[in-house]
Every structure is written in C-alpha cells, then in structure tokens.
Model the fold of this input.
Amino acid sequence: MITQTHINIHVLAFGQIVDIIGQSTINYQTPNTLSAFKKRIENDYPLLSKISYRIAINKKLALEDTAIIEADELALLPPFSGG
Amino acid sequence: MAINWKRYERQIILPNFGLVQQEKLAKAKILVVGAGGLGCPTLLYLAAAGIGQIGIIDFDTVAESNLHRQILYTSKDIGSNKAIVAGEKITMAYPDCLVKTYAEKLDEKNASLIFTNYDLILDGCDNFETRYLIDEVCKQQNIPWIYASVSRFEGQVSVFNLPDANGIKAYYTNLFADKLSNESVLNCAETGVLGVLPGIIGNMQALEAIKVLSQIGQPLANILLTFNGLNNQIYTTQIV
Done:
C-alpha cells in the first residue's frame, strides 16, 4: 500500500475566503499534492467548493496538479468584482 | 506640444523621469472604463499628471450611496450621468487635458470602435462581463490594460497584455479562465467597501498607467498584486 506523505504548510486567505476559513493565515497539515490539498481543504471548509478561486504556490499561480513540500506557502485567491 | 514646465516641474526633476517622460504622458491617450470608485481617483491623478487625452465611458448615474468613495461627485450630481459629470469636472480642473465622454455601456458593438482610439485602457468597472470584454478587445487590438478591483478592505491590481521582463504577457483569462458571473462573487453593494480603499487602489492603477506610458520602473505585467488595507499587507503572485 502506498502511504501518502503529510506535510505542514502555510495557507493565506484573501477576500471572502477569510470569512470561510475564519482567519487570513493558518498553518495546515495536508497530503503533498495540490489536488489532495484542494480536496482536503474543501472538505474542511465546504463553502470553498462553491466559489471560484485560484491557488498560488510560493507566489506563483499553480497551473496544474503539482507536488507541494513542507513549509510551502499556498495563497487562496478569489476574484474581486467591485469598482 | 510645448510642456508647461512650471506645472510639472516637481515630477520632471525626478531621477529617471524628465521632459521626455512628461512628453510621453502629454502624447498619451487613455480610456477609463467606469467613472466610479476606482475611476474617480485615476481620472483626477492622471489628468493632473499631464496625460494628454482621456476618454471616460460610463452609462451609470450618480447615486447618494456613491458619494463616500466617488470623490468627483457631490449631492448636486445625483441622477446625472457619471461620464458627463466626470468629464466636465476634469476639463474644468485640467484644461490642458482633452476629455471625451461616452455616456453609454461598453458592449461588444462599441468596444472595438472606441478602444482603437486609445493607447491604454484602465478597468474601473464593477462586473465580470465588462472585464472579459476589455480583456478580449485589448488582446485583439494589442492594447495593454490595467486591471483593478476592490472588495471590502482589499484590492487587486495587475497589468495585462504587456510583456514582462521575459516577454510573457498575461491576460485576465489566465487568472480566471472560467467565465465568472456577477452572481458568483459578491459586489460592493452586497459586501460594502471602505471609501478610501478604491482611492488607494485607483491610485495604484494610476501609478501603473504612468509607468507603462512613460516607460519607467517595473509595471505589474504578469503579476497580480493584492493589498489589504486592514493589515497593510501586500501580496504579489506571478500569473503565468
């Protein structure tokens, strides 16, 4: 059986995602791929799955599923519409 | 066109800025889409900075709930078209700036015809439909555009369709490829916005416009900047 590695990362929330998560930064334990992180955080905070947002890993927008490593910084960026 | 040295002396004497850059601003033609919370400060500061020609497009009328942040307007302007009022006030304050107003909604029919007259577009709109249209028409016509948007105490700014140091251009569709609808995201009317916030973000947008037009510094090409007014944090991320 393949065991999934769990790592500790920093999550930054922006816009309405701060309301969903309850704070603007959290330390978070996650499996070590972006897709597994997304699945886990949307399971922990179900409202996230109902909104649009992009994820940046260490200040670069993630284009596809990728590995994440210990102490990575993941930002959850929703669109803003106000002008 | 002769530059009024006295008027712009304080920015002409800046290191890395001079008469050549001031002349570039004087020759520039910019279009501000939306004369609201973002449009008011960008219009005021860019006209004051010496931009030669400014277009203003907005179909909306001034409402009392706009006045805490849309600083070009007063109670007397309630009910009047924003583009027309903004145009009159900018012309009165900065007579050297040639202003053209469009009291209409930007749509697929008029966007190409209007955009072709301008070097740079500033997005001060409040909806995704218009933003995707700006993105598309600017791509077709190869015009750079400056995105900004606000929500509560936060704002986003970026420069699209302008090559970064590596020659890579980003578009709004690189940020949010799926066509977002206004229903999917809360707007100012629903979430509220601190009046000063679009003032700050609109001025960041004006600064980017000056950098792009005068070719100084490093514009936010291919970079999304997020500013949080509550904790003064700035977060930047590379888009592509």
Observations:
- The mean pLDDT of chain B is 95.
- DSSP finds nine helices and eight strands in chain B.
- Residues 40 and 71 of chain B are 6 Å apart (CA to CA).
- The interface with chain A takes residues 34, 36-39, 123-128, 148-152, 154-156, 174-176, 178, 180, 182, 184-188, 191, 193, 198, 224, 226, 228, 231, 235-240 of chain B (CB under 8 Å).
